[in-house]
Amino acid sequence: MKQFGIMLLCLACLTCSQPDRTATNVATAPARDNRVRHLSKTKNALVKFYEPMKEHDGDWLQSHPENGETFEEYVDSGPTLPTPERKTLYIQPVGKFSAKQLRVIQQTADYLRAFYDLPVVLRDQRSVDAPKEMVRVQYPDNRQILTSYFLDDLLPKILPNDAAALLCFTNYDLYPSDTWNYVFGQASFQKRVGVWSLWRLEKENGKPARPDLFLDRTLKVAMHETGHMFSMRHCTKYECVMSGTNHLDETDRRPLDTCPECTMKIAWAMNYSPAERYKNLAEFWRKQGRTQEQKRMLEKSQAVQQVK
Q1: DSSP assignments along 254-279, one per residue
Q2: Which of 58, 120, 139, 302 lies at 20 to 30 Å from 89 by C-alpha?
């Protein structure tokens, strides 16, 4: 059996049919061009904070060569953006969660709000009611659920009309088909839904992962996949949360934020000031007691404020 983990999660997002592309920040051509030029200058102020992409054996780019996408190419591509009618990110927990898991889900909702500057609604948890043919037990007693139960059955039925995306977290392990051992998650552009499992993210060498590692992994997966919902491709230029990953070790190496190119994509897509965004991210990390992350975000905020 194949064991690709996050690889399918990323592949699923990239290969699904994309919805109609509708922009909300439509402006006159001169205003648009001026804004693109300013954000292009702004990204240069952030380069010093990021490492160029490094390739290790077994990494994503080794088996999936990609060209990446600059900020300017993203703008020209006519990306899928939130609209006044569809701008809310919904998080739906499905399963029976521990207090630790529920805390991480709440933190993810808070980080999403600061990261993308969109309304985020955390819904009450629901129980799993998957039919028997969509459930299997992996030796010795790991109960796994087929991802199509979520993507084709459960989530489309509870998708709110004003949702930019409905993001589901479950504490059950997932599998996409009988030929796969497992997958961390899967998403659909067309249906605006995705499901991700916490089951493997909170483990480290068969033992419970450190709380900060569990949180970081969950944040990275959620920010990455939400970026795909807004047409952001994998980053290949820098070590970036939008870079593709083949395994958890690669995920753990990634930073908790987007690179200069991808940060400007978010600024454009959400009409979100980079300086304000970094201040909001710094405040999130202050509340977590993570002073180093808070400091990094404030330094980036100061750097982009100096761009004229």
Answers
A1: S-SS--HHHHHHHHHHHT--HHHHHH
A2: 302
Q: Name residue, tokens 């006044």.
A: 84
Q: Which residues are catalytic?
A: 225
- Give the DSSP H/E element, type plus range, for residue 280: helix 274-288
| Three-state SS at 168 | strand
How far, CA to CA in Å, does 18 sit from each of 42, 112, 191, 303? 29, 22, 9, 35
**Cα 225 to Cα 222: distance, rounded to the nearest angstrom:** 5
Whether residue 254 contacts residue 223, with contact meaning beta carbons closer than 8 Å, is answered with: no
Confidence (pTM):
0.88
Residue 9 pLDDT > 80, yes or no?
Answer: no
Write out pLDDT tens, residues 155-186: 999 999 999 999 999 999 999 999 988 888 88
Phi, psi for 183 (deg, rounded to 5): -150, 145
In percent, how much of the chain has pLDDT > 90? Answer: 74
Per-residue pLDDT for 19 more than 90? no
- Compute and round to an integer the Cα radius of gyration of the chain: 19
Q: Which residue has the tokens 């490492």?
A: 51
Nearest CA-CA partner of 252 in 196, 289, 201: 201
Percentage above 70 pLDDT, the chain: 91
Integer CA distances (angstroms), 228 to 144, 154, 210, 249, in order: 25, 21, 28, 21
* Among 210, 286, 283, 289, residue whose Cα is nearest residue 252: 210
Check if the beta carbon of residue 188 is closer than 8 Å to that of residue 14: no
More confident of the two residues 264 and 19: 264
The yes-or-no verdict on residue 278 having pLDDT over 70 is yes
Name the average pLDDT for the chain.
Answer: 89
β-pairing, 193-197 vs 185-188, is: antiparallel
- CB burial class (10 A; 0-12, 13-18, 19+) of residue 206? exposed
Please state the φ and ψ torsions of residue 254, each to the nearest 5 degrees. -70, 150
